[in-house]
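During the no-cost extension, the postdoctoral fellow (Dr. R.K.) reprocessed legacy sequence entries with the updated structure-token encoder. One reprocessed record is reproduced below for audit purposes.
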Amino acid sequence: MAADVAEYHHERWDGKGYPAGLSGNAIPLAARICAVADVYDALVNRSYGVAKTEEEVLRHMREDIGHFDPDIFTCFINSLSVIKIIQKYLKDKICDQLQ
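Re-encoded structure tokens follow.
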């Protein structure tokens, strides 16, 4: 699964991604899931350049028709509040362990 994510998370639902130009369900499920998370995280938590607001990021992701598996993107949007709770919990737990 990790190899699929590493190799295929830049594929696009519409087939315009890389490295293999896979489309739709030919893209491994784990890679399709990680593609959504990767783009969201890269735009919200930019280590290079200026981070975008969550609103800007979600607008950009919605407008990039063809990039993401629509069902996975919908699940991501519907789960975002829970994802943020988990993210904060894990961040706090890691910070506590470093102290």
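The helical segments are 2-8, 29-44, 54-63, 70-98. Residues 13 and 24 are 5 Å apart (CA to CA). The remaining legacy entries will be reprocessed before the final report is submitted.
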